[in-house]
Design brief:
By secondary structure, this protein is α/β, with parallel strands linked by helices. It is built from seven helices and seven strands; from the N terminus they run αβαββαββαβαβαα. It has a single domain, classed as Flavodoxin domain (Rossmann fold, 3-Layer(aba) Sandwich). It has a five-stranded parallel sheet with strand order 2-1-5-6-7, sandwiched between helices. The chain has a two-stranded antiparallel ribbon with strand order 3-4. The chain binds flavin mononucleotide. The site of flavin mononucleotide (FMN) has 20 residues, from helix 2, helix 3 and strand 6.
Length: about 170
C-alpha cells in the first residue's frame, strides 16, 4: 500500500475520476480510487429521472437503444488531465446514457482512458467491448466488480489495489 501511495502521489494531479452512479455502488469505487490516487473527481448527473422501477425499466431500454441523455455536473475539463478513469454501472450489458453522453462529448479531448464497471452479475465483458469500440482505442486498464465483490471488504480491496497499481505502472 505504501509503495502504491508513493508511486501515485507525484502523478496524482493529472488524473480525473469521472463516474455516474444511480444507487451508489459505482460512487463507492470512484471515491476509493480517487482517495488512493489523490485524483480529482467528477460526478455525472443524469437529468432524466432514473429512480424506482420505472427508472430501472426506461434506463435499461435507453441503454439498449444506445440513447444519450441530458447531463449536468460537469465542471472539469478532461483535456487538462493525462488520464481519465471512467466509472460506470453496467445497464443491460451497455453503458448507461449518462456515460455514453459524457464520452461522446469529450472523447476527442481525452488523452488516455482507464475504465471500471460495476454490475449485479459477475461478468462485465460486454460493456468492456462496447466502450472499447465506442472510443475506438485501447483502454490502459479495465476492472469489473460485481455487487457480491463490492460487499466483501477483502475482495474489494484486492481488486481495487490491483487496478490502481496497473494504472500507476502504465501511466
Ligand atoms: C437499468 C439497469 C440495468 C442493469 N443491467 C444489468 C446487466 O445487464 N447486468 C448486470 O450484471 N447488472 C445490471 N444492472 C445492475 C447494476 O449494473 C449494478 O447494480 C451496479 O453496480 C449499479 O451501480 P450504481 O449503484 O452505481 O448505480 C442493471 C441496473 C440497472 C439500473
Amino acid at each position: 500500500m505504501e509503495k502504491m501511495k508513493s508511486a501515485s502521489s507525484e502523478k496524482a494531479r493529472n488524473i480525473l475520476v469521472v463516474y455516474y452512479s444511480r444507487t451508489g455502488s459505482t460512487r463507492k469505487v470512484a471515491e476509493y480510487i480517487t482517495k488512493q490516487l489523490g485524483a480529482d473527481m467528477e460526478m455525472i448527473i443524469d437529468m432524466k429521472k432514473r429512480s424506482g422501477a420505472f427508472g430501472f425499466i426506461t434506463g435499461a431500454i435507453d441503454a439498449l437503444k444506445r440513447k444519450e441523455t441530458e447531463i449536468s455536473g460537469i465542471k472539469k475539463d478532461p483535456s487538462k488531465y493525462d488520464l481519465i478513469i471512467v466509472g460506470s454501472p453496467m445497464w443491460a450489458g451497455n453503458m448507461p446514457p449518462a456515460i455514453r453522453t459524457y464520452l461522446n462529448k469529450y472523447k476527442a479531448n481525452i488523452k488516455s482512458v482507464a475504465f471500471f464497471a460495476t454490475s449485479g452479475g459477475p461478468s462485465q465483458g460486454k460493456i468492456f467491448e462496447k466502450v472499447r469500440s465506442f472510443l475506438d482505442r485501447e483502454l490502459i486498464s479495465l476492472m469489473g466488480i460485481c455487487t457480491k465483490e463490492l460487499n466483501d471488504d477483502s475482495i474489494f480491496e484486492a481488486k481495487l489495489s490491483s487496478f490502481i497499481e496497473s494504472i500507476t505502472q502504465k501511466k
